[in-house]
Amino acid sequence: MAPQFTEIDRFGPSHSPRDGARVTNFLLHTQEGNGTAESLAAYLNNPANGVSYHYTLRDAVVVRVVPEELAAWSVLSANPFTVNLCFAGSRVAWSRQQWLAIDGDLRIAAYIAVRSAQRHGHSTRVIAPDYHVADGISDHQYVTRALGIGSHTDVGPNFPWDVFAAHVASFAGGGGGVQTAIDVRAAASTWLGARRTDGELATPDGVGRFAEFENGYVYWHPTTDAHAIPTAVMSKYAELGWETGPLGYPVAEHAALPDPRGAGPGLAQAFQGGTVYRRANQPAYWVHGAIGDRWAAAGHENGELGWPTSDETTHDDGVYQAFEFGRIYWVPEQIVALRNSGEPDTPLARPA
User: Fold this and answer.
1) Rounded-to-integer distance, Cα 280 and Cα 68, Å
2) What domains, with CATH codes, occur in the chain?
3) How remote is the C-alpha of 11 from its chain's centroid?
């Protein structure tokens, strides 16, 4: 059960944009002073002081100073990918007994850390000394020793990591782990089969994540969520450069398309940059842009043009794409659909 605490919003101007960075860590800090959660928040809300945290905490009072969508001024160049909480009134020099005296606040901090990790889709593993670089929950000294940024040593050598980790595990389901969006999608897509990736891998943009399975992949991005891509579509995705290519990230699950004229159902999957169509036992093709819109107006694969049989091909001042029963030509300011009907081909009228 969630611990009992009072949460207050005292948002101020001491923050920066995350600039698309993916949040990977929740970090703990000491104040090195005697403030309350609210007095520390007031200090942080003065931009001239040059410091801020997302949360301050003392005596079961939590003050939200910076929204988690924004970066606080806590850990130098690690700000864009961290969420930060400061124990008001705490010090690096505290003994283990002094930390255990505020066990109620440790439990609240663990709850907030797990809540944040689940929100951002990163692990709830607790990264205690000796540190290693990973997604998870740690402290300011992790940034110093593992990431090589700055020189801070809080929360100090006597912080009761064992007690704090037990609190985290109790809120994260007992094992210290958390289901990410990729895990949830994989569980709902049993056709993917056995998982091949140990955990998740970062995409080259540093924001997205993916995992490989026996019969496909799951890709996640904060703006598109997690979607599974079957192997039959994945070959085209790879050919076009995966998520760094023109397709971008998937934006929906694949759909099975009935095909009375074919050997079995086809597949279609939508991406940020268009849709991949694959007829059973045939190559996959990418349909997008003005040609994709014109094909949609003709009825997609069930219309007079049928299934795509090529990607776009450069032609004179424009491009064309071949379909089962015709072609669609595009040049700036004009698009024409032609149905194969001998010489010459018949222009296909746009539906009313």
Assistant:
1) 45
2) 6-172 (3.40.80.10), 290-352 (no CATH)
3) 25
305 touches 295 (CB < 8 A) = yes
DSSP 231: H
What is the residue-level pLDDT of the chain in tens, covering all 352 positions? 689 999 999 999 999 999 999 999 999 999 999 999 999 999 999 999 999 999 999 999 999 999 999 999 999 999 999 999 999 999 999 999 999 999 999 999 999 999 999 889 899 999 999 999 999 999 999 999 999 999 999 999 999 999 999 899 888 864 434 457 788 888 889 999 998 887 778 888 777 889 999 999 999 887 888 899 999 999 999 999 999 999 999 999 999 999 988 888 999 999 999 999 999 999 999 999 999 999 999 999 999 999 999 999 998 789 999 999 999 999 887 887 878 766 555 556 666 5
Q: What residue has token string 């100073």?
A: 65
- Spatial separation of the C-alpha atoms in residues 153 and 325, rounded to whole Å: 69
DSSP symbol at 94? -
Beta-bridge partner residues of 83: 26
CB-based contact 76:149 (threshold 8 Å):
yes
Residues paired with 61 in a beta bridge: 6, 58
**Contacts of 313 by beta carbon, 8 Å cutoff, 6+ apart:** 319, 320, 321, 322
CB contact at 8 A, 291 and 302: no
CB 114 within 8 A of CB 169: no
Kindly give the residue spans of alpha helices, DSSP state H, lying in 121-158.
Answer: 140-145
Give residues with Cβ within 8 angstroms of 25, minimum separation 6. Answer: 78, 81, 82, 83, 122, 127, 135, 136, 137, 138, 142
Structure token digits, residue 209: 């994540």
Alpha-carbon gap, residue 76 to 79, rounded angstroms: 6
The torsion angle over the Cα atoms of residues 290, 295, 299 and 301, rounded to 10 degrees, is -140
Cβ–Cβ < 8 Å for 216, 230: yes
